[in-house]
Amino acid sequence: MILDMHGKLKAKKKDQVVHRELLSSLVISHNFPYKFVEYPELRTWINYLCPDAIMISRNTVKADIGRMYMKEKIMLKELIASIPSRICLTSDLWTSINTEGFISLTAHFVDPNWKLNTKLLKFCHMPPPHTGFELSKKINEFLQDWGLEKNVFSLTLDNASTNNVLQNTLKRQLILQNGLICGGEFFHVRCCAHILNLIVQEGLKVLGDALGQIRNSIKYVRGLESRMMKFKQCLERFSDIDASSGLCLDASTRWNSTYLMINSALKYQRVFGSLHLVDESYKYCPTEEEWERAGKICEFLLPFYEITNLISATSYPTSNLYFLQVWKIQCLLMENVKDEDVLIKNMAKLMIVKFEKYWDEYSIVLAFGAILDPRMKLETLGFCFEKIDSLTWELKLEKINEKLYKLFAEYSTKGFTTSSSVQKQRQGQSSFSSSMSKPSLFYELKMRKLQVANKAGRSQLDTYLDEPTLDFDYSEQMDVLDWWKNNSQRFSDLALMARDLLSIPITTVASESAFSIGS
Asked: At a CB cut-off of 8 Å and minimum separation 6, what does 476 contact?
């Protein structure tokens, strides 16, 4: 730096390395083409601000970004190598307008600080043919490149027919390399967002023109500015209506837009009812019966809309939250099968057939996540199963319990806590107590309890399930990963299993978002 006679900054020496790094970051962050750095207007502006700055060519910035990528890749490899758990994957294929295919692979895992991570491992061109066999070969190449072929827990895919071949072929390859737990029984996870979409679309088939008048009313008002002005004029008569949200029109390919359309229209029901008083051309006012039916449909679709938003968020939650959401939807469908409205009843019937087709086996993975939530465990599962079917709930619970212990056996040497597990916990405590004069009294008591349980032949899973569930009143906003972090020394093997199960994504949204440069 150079200071003037008053001690103020007069000039600053420019570091060309920093200049190139910042320029590369700009190109990456805003998806600019490499030729952006050669735009004459940009060069003129930079030259005006700093005549000493040396602008680089498109080839140079491409090389710089390549080096940044390799640097980040090495850092991510080191991070993944430092975690004791396995990796959960999501993958998706996208075909552009000119039929060029692109594939993405995303990793989901809990890092050493017990924070859920989502990292895009690969995004590249996928030449045809886009068969399940070719896709499995491609993903296997990605895993070998990252050294993860023996460290995979699950793969979440959408319901495309090619994905059945993909997961079967990839599963066989990984089993040959001893890369899967329980022979890959829990390897394939279906995308929940796609399943929900199929279920709702099936139900909406029976609607026909039931929402025609509401749809036509919104189309009419939004069609011309003069009609919108008359609608607002009519709205002024109702001071108690919140006008902050506008009228939405649905798209035939997006069921959630149908929910948003009905929800927006219901807010303005009274306005539509009196619109003909200020607009004589308006002839589409729905009847009271149509409004009542729209309200039922809106209420019916609300849980689907909420769970779709939950699982499709940029920062998706841990898998323990999914079971209750899906159970809520199943209860709703069973309830509406008995509805007096024939239309609602027929919707529910079609949807529950689709629901049972996809969720029968898949519910096991969701149940594992709920069991590893200390607020729920088997107690909550039993309550949910019994409410759905009081005759078979015990059999369902027994089946899940059996599979849970089978999975846990893979995480503990002989299916129960061994002396080696205790030794690991002691080693962890010794590093913790190195900065203290002696171990915590509470820690010694916990370790003693664990040793007694070990001598009695009880596993960590037995001990965990026998402990009372946490009170929801005091733990509603609890981060389940924090709980496992704090209890990882008591349940070393079980905590390792929790890392894998709680990081399972039940949607491919993380991989799909790689194909969009929008928000």
From this structure: none
